[in-house]
Fold:
Amino acid sequence: MAFKRSSALAAFIFSICLIGISADQEDSMNQTISNNNNEPVVCLIVRSGSNPYFDAMRSSAQRHATKLGLNLVTYVTSKSGTVGGFAAAERNIALIQKCVTEDGAVALLLSIAADDPGSDTEAAAIENARAEHGVLALAIDSRINGVDALIQTNNTAAGEAIGQYALATNNKEDARIAVLYCPIEDDLNIYERIVGFVSGFGLSTQYTDPTTIDDPNSTRTIDFYSDPQIIAAREYKCSVADSGRDATLDILASNSGDDAPTIIYATNEVGGFGALEALREKGLSDSNIRIMTIDGSCNGVAEVYDGGFDANIIQQPGLMAQLGLDAVKAFLETGKAATGFTETPFGLAVKDQVYPYATLQTEAEDICWGAVDDGTSDLSGVGVGAGAMVGSEDTNSGGGTVVCSIGYLALVVGIVLASI
Structure:
């Protein structure tokens, strides 16, 4: 029994100590604390430390927190699975507990993975933080349970907007659509982007009733081929441009010449860049195949005006964080917690500038963020690009590295005790 208790204690201490480790990798957690400890503490937890989308979210949050007189603490956890020997859900719970018990946070801004194994226990930890410590808990671009409110893009509306643009700028009867999609069972946002596009273009594609998809017992399904205008649909890895390229090459191998797609809809920019690379590889970059996608990074928006993409929805991760902090400030001043769903506005960058609902190029270039992996460039360390959020300053949120000698020592002690 002593062995089991010692080993468990060592693992627990080491897992908590992981919170202080900083690195630009998915298996790290980064902490940033402003200098004035007399200000109310707000914790922001994001699910990636190497994705410029979350870099934009963190840096914008840091600037806005300073403006509001809030002391921002940021942590980076992992998206899903087991990292460093600890499940993502366990790491998220440890961070939530640290925020409220050690950092003294008055609010949690959570952009953690929505479908991690153990999400029920994450929800319980969030609910406990609210009930026992009186904190405000907001989900930022993350479909998690147990929070007071959600702030993010309306992904159904975003998909619908791009579907309407595709319909307005193509001959519907002649359209042949290929869909590149991230796994829908892992991400409700991706599912909604597809459902929105299908509705916007006026397709009769069959899918699970979206009013039931929050039910944990329901299954998200889309019968892509229930409408003959969708000639191909391929899944790809959301964060790997080469996966999007390979999926597109597979589509083109089966649908060439007069049967080639006229529209390729990719559910995120990484897939869009993969599709673009596939077209270039096949000598089709000057063809009539039009790529449409969602995300709004600065290199993705530039690709619209350079002719690679036909349309790109621009999300605003920095604005999401700002709205979250505004809700925290209101909570502190009034005691009233935000509730429900707050939609952040999105832009629509399009090649055809005569489209009446398009975002002007100057505005699109102003509200874009960072740069995503286009499959050809080294984008490590890229943060907010030239298109920082409107009203933001060119400042960076600093950070520090904590050497976790105590946690390591505890782990060693546990191993030694295990051998006794």
User: Anything to note?
Assistant: Residues 1-29, 378-420 have pLDDT under 50 and may be disordered. DSSP finds twelve helices and 17 strands in the chain.
